[in-house]
Amino acid sequence: MVNLGLPNALYQALDVPVEILIEIFVLCTTDTDPLANLKLLRVSKLWREVVQSSPRVWQHLYLHDRGTIASSHAQALLWARQSYPLAFDIHLDVSQSSDLVLPLLSPLLPLLDRWRHFTMTGKRDESIDISGSLPQGLDPLVITIEDPDQLDSTDTEEGLQRLTFSGMPGWLTMNVWVSELPKASCLTPLRFTTIVMSEYPPILSQPRAILDFLAACPMLEAFFFTGWHHDECLLTPLPVVRLSRLRKLRLRNTCGTRSLLSSIDAPALVELHLGHLNVDFAFSGAAPERGGPGWEDGDSEDEANDFSRSNHSDHATGMGLRRLLMRSNPPLEVLVMDWSDMRTKDFKFVFSHLDKLESFFIEASDMSDKVIDFLRPYVSAWDQQVRVRLPRLKRLELSNCNELSGGALLNMLTDRVKVTDKWEGETLNEVIIAHCEGFTPRHAVLLRKELGKRLKSEQD
Length: 460
Prior knowledge:
The protein is α/β, with parallel strands linked by helices. It has 13 helices and 20 strands.
């Protein structure tokens, strides 16, 4: 008989009906002895049978961050299996590191409908009655990557209490605060369809860490990443992460654009938002040395020699987008470039590969007349037919594009709609031109003769 530290007389006293034994065993598992159930299994054949056949004995799961992730995962899955079909309580102690909240809970997240009560102690104290909210789903996952000194804060920047689970009745959001992203090897596959990730100084999350994390998210449909502008590591070979369900991708305030876009395989991508990627400084992750490792077709200097205030980030954005289109050939319908830009030859490549694009918005681009001219009809050298790039384009919005001349815009749009208004395919039904210095009221009057109410500008 295994010694549980009880007097011999008490062992004899426990020779009681099974129903009472179960009630006693339920009280044995505590935060001071989270594995008491495993000890009870070894006391006697009777006790083993009672413990193994009684889901109530397994309704309290105590996890902590002092052991290995593998052992915690094994414990979590055992308790979840043995307590079935009953709901169970989760007691999580993270006295060592808040970085381990997601790894420790990952095997239990698919079983959210069986959670009864969640309690967290250690770096942060929380308690929530999960069963009372009757959650039908857990989405999105919101990840904040910040200075380790900030992790133990109990409040957000807005003064709200930091809660791992928040939301509304019937639906929960999971929030985690980490100093570094957990490795995929420490996670069981995550079923979140939406992930919102934000990084704050002085933390530098390298693209490799982000890609490794995304590899654990096979159900992902929308990924939003906001970072801060800092020099990236030199371009090195990165693993390609296939996100077969990804439909929306948003990158904002990062110099890792090329690395991320070049390493994501997203064959179902429909919307791509690139925001505030322009920077006026050189950074290592923009381009490899000529002829060196990582050098790709298109890395040569732009033959157009057009003016740019952000030539390094233009290079990185253009090359990343090229690689994404070549690898995945996604059915992209919406492209938003908000204070994000590319080189002239990158625009030509992108426009030539987006046959399904319906909406294009760009702001604060240094694009020249050469770029906008790519959207005019042209005669194909292959079959001598008149064609247009972006043949399904319905909505075009240009804002603060001050290197464009009004004449180039007028000529391109006039020539384009004269062709597309008559063919069987799509044509422009909304054109917005805002705060483009070269586009004058005179240009607006002339263009309105062709577009009518489809044109919207500040001259209205």
